[in-house]
Design a protein that fits this description.
The protein is mainly alpha-helical. Helix content is about 65%, strand content about 5%.
Length: about 160
């Protein structure tokens, strides 16, 4: 087992090994989602937009601004994503009757069908691959991961270098 590297002179130790593993697990999951989206005929960002639309539908009309915030992209980028999905009849857009600047976006049946297929795949992947992601997250949680690493080290007879 590799010795955890600690930041020299820092008040708190930095577990680079576990942070790197967390980023790897997240990236692995995201890459699989990106490939699945492309295989379903849409771009990964389009899938994320469809997912946010569905996830927000019980909160009332979803605006382009809200989608930009949820996707952490600029407003004009969200507009471009919506434009492409409108062209494919996966979403519809509607201007607010009182404030013409406000544009809400809704999911259409074609978008719902693609989203459902991809979301079911995501859920299955989380059931199989999620435990490893959770394990890594727990290692990084204050007080929990450190105790587990120390238990592992004690069991294996390993220790840090002097």
């Amino acid at each position: 087992m590799a010795v955890t590297r600690r930041e020299a002179g820092a008040a708190s130790p930095v577990d680079y090994e576990t942070l790197a593993e967390l980023r790897y697990q997240i990236r692995l999951f995201m890459r699989r989602r990106e490939e699945a989206a492309r295989a379903a005929g849409i771009e990964p960002q389009q899938y994320l937009l469809l997912l946010q639309l569905k996830g927000l539908e019980d909160r009332g009309p979803t605006t382009v601004g809200a989608l930009a915030e949820r996707l952490q992209i600029r407003h004009h980028s969200a507009v471009e994503l919506v434009d492409r999905l409108v062209e494919r009849d996966m979403v519809a857009r509607r201007r607010d009757s009182l404030d013409r600047r406000e544009v809400s976006v809704t999911l259409r049946p074609a978008g719902e069908a693609v989203l459902r297929k991809l979301a079911l795949y995501s859920m299955e992947e989380l059931r199989t691959e999620g435990p490893e992601l959770v394990r890594v997250l727990r290692q990084l949680m204050p007080g929990r991961g450190r105790a587990r690493r120390e238990q592992r080290t004690a069991r294996t007879g390993g220790g840090g270098t002097q």
